[in-house]
Specification:
Layout (H helix, E strand, L loop, with lengths): L3 H17 L3 H5 L7 E3 L6 E2 L1 H13 L2 E14 L2 E12 L9 E5 L3
Antiparallel strand pairs: 1-2, 1-5, 3-4, 4-5
Length: about 110
């Protein structure tokens, strides 16, 4: 069985691939039902439909790629709580957009 760190790296790669494929549903499928997402300057996004809508809006606004950095991982009763910083990249620029997201929840 893969280590927790390896599993996280693999899920991060799957998440970024889903973003590159403009697949907000696949991105959402990697969150737990109870997951929350916090973007700077925004209110907390909670629940599957709202998180999927957040990512769909990001994709439609031109976000095509990202750099994902895992900040902290907690193991909570069989679940992994992942806290990460995501630097988003837009189609018209290949430099990180100066906005970061903190996301929690995963499996």
């Amino acid at each position: 069985m893969a280590s927790v760190a390896e599993q996280i790296r693999n899920k991060n790669a799957e998440f970024l691939e889903a973003l590159r494929n403009h697949d907000a549903a696949a991105m959402m499928a990697m969150y737990l039902h109870e997951a929350r997402l916090l973007a700077p300057g925004s209110e907390m996004v909670e629940g599957p439909s709202k998180i999927q809508a957040f990512w769909q809006n990001a994709i439609q606004s031109g976000i095509t790629d990202a750099k994902l950095e895992t900040i902290d991982v907690d193991l909570l009763g069989g679940y992994t709580a992942l806290f990460a910083v995501l630097s988003l990249l837009a189609l018209s620029m290949r430099k990180p957009v100066p906005r970061h997201l903190a996301a929690g929840g995963g499996h």
